[in-house]
């Protein structure tokens, strides 16, 4: 009887896992092991890996002041749900530490840091002539959305989160759009159902649907190449990543990359993405991403409803020229060009910490 009950439970779990509500019930909420739960495409590293200098130098900083108290830095990170933290200054590792059994080879989902990577690929596609302009209407690439009133929505509206998209960003609602996009098994079908609630270019609202629409624009522009293949060709191999990575899909067969989330990589390779933008898209003398795109993507712009703290899928934590990619559980790539500084924080949870404040506090010490 026990064996029959276990078999029934297993069959139920497998059945539920095949649909959105089933995935939601089984997996419940996004967590640090989600890269193991969904189908994905592998993105291969190149033949040789780039290694930051100074990996064996001592830990820095030893202390950090936060909320009017001084904390031992290692202890602070460990107590606030971190699994990895890196500080790279002048292209050398000044601090690298791992917690809770993680190490430099441990894969951690990017969550919404993938939005920033999607933006990078849009810039590459513009440079390659695959996309004509950010001013193009997205219905040029997704004509099926014309009937839903999307003819005035441009690629830039998606980049700036000013499209006016009607989209429920609440992960706790199994019937909301973000749950459909995260746990669903047919993103293309879900996209066809999207509607607008506001005039494009009127106001900023952070919703993941914009980034997934960018993904479908990119897929259509690439034609016979997957988004993962394009990331491998344009970024992963040229940057000399140390490990293969993957991009989670909605389904195994003919799946679409979840471009609003779900790249799965290690801390050092995330750091290289930050370093690429620190150097304005140039890597060892080769311009991988147009410098003008990097500049446009990380400047403050409040025109046409844009927010002063968000630009082209990157967060702008201050008015000092720094910027960062950010994921829901406290995943960050922070870049401070003035200080020649890159930081990566990966975690199980945010851990009740304003990490942007932590980054700027550390940056002040350089």
TrEMBL record:
InterPro entries per record: Beta-lactam-related, Beta-lactam/transpept-like, Diverse_Enzym_Activities
Species per Swiss-Prot/TrEMBL record: Sphingobacterium olei
Domain of life: Bacteria
GO molecular function: hydrolase activity
Stored PROSITE patterns: PROKAR_LIPOPROTEIN
All residue ranges annotated as the Beta-lactamase-related domain in the record: 80-351
Alphabetized Pfam families for the sequence: Beta-lactamase
Protein name in UniProt: Serine hydrolase
Protein's UniProt keywords contain Cell inner membrane: no
Entry keywords, A to Z: Hydrolase
């Amino acid at each position: 009887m026990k064996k029959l009950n276990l078999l029934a439970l297993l069959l139920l779990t497998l059945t539920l896992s095949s649909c959105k509500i089933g995935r939601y019930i089984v997996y419940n909420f996004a967590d640090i092991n989600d890269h193991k739960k969904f189908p994905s495409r592998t993105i291969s590293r190149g033949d040789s890996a780039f290694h930051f200098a100074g990996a064996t130098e001592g830990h820095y900083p030893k202390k950090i002041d936060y909320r009017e108290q001084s904390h031992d830095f290692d202890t602070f990170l460990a107590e606030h749900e971190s699994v990895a933290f890196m500080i790279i200054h002048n292209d050398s590792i000044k601090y690298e530490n791992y917690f809770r059994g993680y190490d430099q080879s441990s894969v951690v989902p990017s969550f919404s840091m993938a939005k920033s990577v999607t933006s990078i690929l849009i810039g590459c596609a513009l440079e390659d002539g695959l996309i004509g302009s950010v001013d193009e209407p997205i219905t040029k690439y997704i004509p099926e959305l014309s009937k839903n009133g999307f003819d005035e929505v441009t690629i830039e509206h998606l980049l700036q989160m000013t499209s006016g998209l009607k989209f429920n960003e609440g992960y706790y609602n199994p019937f909301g759009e973000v749950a459909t996009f995260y746990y669903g098994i047919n993103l293309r079908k879900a996209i066809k159902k999207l509607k607008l609630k506001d005039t494009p270019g009127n106001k900023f609202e952070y919703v993941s649907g914009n980034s997934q629409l960018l993904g479908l624009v990119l897929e259509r522009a690439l034609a016979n190449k997957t988004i993962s293949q394009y990331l491998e060709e344009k970024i992963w191999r040229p940057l000399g990543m140390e490990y293969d990575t993957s991009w989670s899909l909605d389904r195994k067969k003919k799946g679409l990359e979840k471009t609003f989330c779900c790249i799965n990589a290690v801390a050092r390779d995330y750091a290289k993405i930050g370093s690429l933008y620190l150097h304005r898209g140039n890597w060892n003398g080769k311009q991988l991403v147009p410098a003008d795109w990097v500049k446009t993507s990380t400047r403050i712009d409040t025109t046409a409803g844009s927010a002063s703290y968000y630009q082209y899928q990157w967060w702008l934590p201050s008015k000092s020229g720094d910027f960062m990619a950010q994921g829901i559980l406290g995943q960050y790539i922070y870049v401070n060009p003035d200080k020649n500084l890159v930081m990566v924080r990966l975690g199980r949870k945010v851990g009740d910490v304003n990490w942007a404040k932590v980054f700027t506090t550390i940056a002040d010490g350089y």
